[in-house]
Fold this sequence. Notes:
Layout lengths: L2 E6 L7 H9 L4 E4 L8 E5 L2 E5 L12 E4 L4 E2 L1 H13 L8 E3 L3 E2 L2 H14 L11 H10 L11 H22 L7 H9 L2 H4 L3 E2 L1 H10 L4 E4 L25 H7 L5 E9 L2 E3 L8 E2 L4 H9 L12 E3 L1 E2 H10 L4 E5 L9 E9 L5 E2 L6 H6 L1 E8 L16 H14 L3 E5 L7 E3 L5
Parallel strand pairs: 1-10, 1-11, 2-5, 2-10, 5-7, 6-8, 7-9, 11-16, 15-17, 16-20
Antiparallel strand pairs: 3-4, 12-14, 13-14, 17-18, 17-19, 20-21
Helix pairs in contact: 3-4, 5-6
This protein binds inosinic acid.
Amino acid sequence: MPGAVIVGTxxxxxxxxxxxxxxxxxxxxxxxxxxxxxxxxxxxxxGEVFKLQLVPSGVLxxxxxxxxxxxxxxxxxxxxxELDMLExxxxxxxxxxxxxxxxxxxxxxxxxxxLTERYLGxxxxxxxxxGIGPTYADKAMRVGLRIQDLLDPKIxxxxxxxxxxxxxxxxxxxxxxxxxxAGEIAEQYLGYVDRLAPLIDDTVHLVHEALDVGQWxxxxxxxxxxxxxxxxxYPFVTSSNPVAGGVGAGAGVGPRAIERITGIVKAYVTRVxxxxxxxxxxEGDEVxxxxxERGREFGTNTGRKRRAGWLDLVxxxxxxxxxxxxELAITKLDVLSPLPELKxxxxxxxxxxxxxxxxxxxxxxxxxxxxxxxxxxxxxVDVERAERIEDLPAAAREYVRFIEQYTGVHVSFxxxxxxxxxxxxxxxxx
Length: 430
Ligand code: IMP
């Protein structure tokens, strides 16, 4: 049963969309299994830029069925706007399937996301304010509304009334805001039904129908390993499970369905929002500024400037374990080209001089550790036109080899520019 997973190994924005797009051409289904429109995937095809938030990257291949799995949280207005955008670029969006079990992001989720962040003050998480956390919280509390509820206006209204009873109490009594009107929300959401209904499906069944006949199903994570609710730098994480194991619950398959797990690694590290980041290069650092500028490290949707730092192999190795990666794909190698030397973090140390070769489980330790770097030579020539591994300068090959050796996981791909064809494929040694 050939299932493949694409997962980010850092804090997101590794360039997963581009590799999903690259690998999707072999797949029959491309399935998102968690997250919502907090994600942003930028794809460049024939010079045209596509910015996707909810729809899996495989949508750009007409033979791929893009699936929004049950583990995703969906704001229907955002989904419909994305479908309009795709249609306006000549892409047929009627193939997209949306799980009836996916949860709906409601207007009060947006509002509560904004309010809780504001109330956290300097301790804020730096969420995308898209209502993601409150929607997953309601799912766990069993008071969420699901896509399938839209198909039954009476049920939808009953569930909404019930949910609003508590939410309006929170909004008015805790946060001193105006209550929300159930009638207005119902009218807005039920207004989406005509367009959404033909897309709603039993996506678990679709996935298994494809797996049963030996077709490739590509599962696409949003966010990444260190934003995982269980394995990331909690509480500075998202509210779902981007790790490869999340596919099980978020798409409805068991571990045996997965054969290939591609971990996406940016050649350096970025993070948006708050939380620990051992190799961070702070505002004003020349290298940090170069990474942000050359890497265009600003949020696809939010426009937020990302924090940037050197590659952290301690975290990467742990990520390859958390996801059981069968291969790695390195992105944005070209961004490093001007640098005369490159640092890679190979261990941490704390104030007492204790050394850590793995990610310390205790957050307070992780907050305070200092990176121990190894310095590798830079290449200082353009790599954008490299097509094969031999086209890369020796220092770039050494950088890739170092990553491979440290993690013990084969590097299959290296991207040297944003376009589809700027991907160097590295064959496995026989
Ligand atoms: P939320 O997912 O909006 O609740 O945000 C929680 C944390 O995850 C914040 O630090 C966000 O910046 C981060 N985050 C959420 N989605 C992405 C993403 O697609 N890329 C990078 N960071 C993200």
